Amino acid sequence: MQTAIAVPAVRKAPRPRADALRNRERIVTAAREMFTEYGPDVPLDDIARRAGVGNATVYRNFPDRDALVREVVCSVMDRTSEAAELALAESGDAFEALERFVHTSADERVSALCPMVASTFDQNHPDLEAARERCEQLIGQLMDRAKAAGQLRPDVGVGDVMIAAAQLSRPPAGTGCLVNDRFVHRHLQLFLDGLRAPARSVLPGTAVTMEDLRQA
Fold first, then answer.
1. 136: which of 76, 103, 178, 207 lies 20 to 30 Å off by Cα?
2. Domain annotation for the chain: domains and CATH numbers
């Protein structure tokens, strides 16, 4: 008679508690706000205070500053992707959907995160690459739909739209974010009006891709 071999039970990894998930989200939200206001070097203790958690909670979720900055950047890209998905789900005017997306993405303060991506951590981190690829594909689909409808000039690329949105939503030197907020959407709309087809002028160079911007 053969003895049955006991098969060890497979243990499932415990799911994070709801309060732990809420704390993590509060930390990311507070960090996003403070990075926008003060830059990526803001003390983590200050982020903990704004999030309403202890310092230990911050370090338990993010072992170092780079991990937190990366999470913030990925979070903003994910939120931008969600805005693009919502715009793609609309069945109305293709250019108006693109307009709403650009205004929404500007509110995410993508421009404030550009220096962080360039200077504080590995740009090729898998999490960042996945979030970036998803975001760029969705924006490309939005633009392709508007071009197919004959509403978006054909000589612009994803990079053209994103660099303009970033530059127009970045406060000029010597001014604060809150002061600049009054003008961001006005200037974005001026830019968007220039994207409409038919084009009134010939642009120098070629349509800018996001890869062009990364290599610049």
1. 178
2. 17-63 (1.10.10.60), 70-215 (1.10.357.10)
User: What is the CB-side half-sphere exposure of residue 92 using CA atoms within 13 A?
Assistant: 8
31 close to 72: Cβ distance less than 8 angstroms: yes
In whole angstroms, what separates CA 209 from the centre of its chain?
A: 17
Query: What is the rounded distance in angstroms from the CA atom of residue 121 to the CA atom of residue 113?
Result: 12
Is the pTM above the cut of 0.85? no
CB neighbourhood size of 84 (10 A):
25
Contact present, 113 and 35 (Cβ < 8 Å): yes
Instruction: Give the model confidence (pLDDT) of 21-73 as tens digits.
Output: 899 999 999 998 888 777 778 899 999 999 999 999 999 999 988 889 889 88
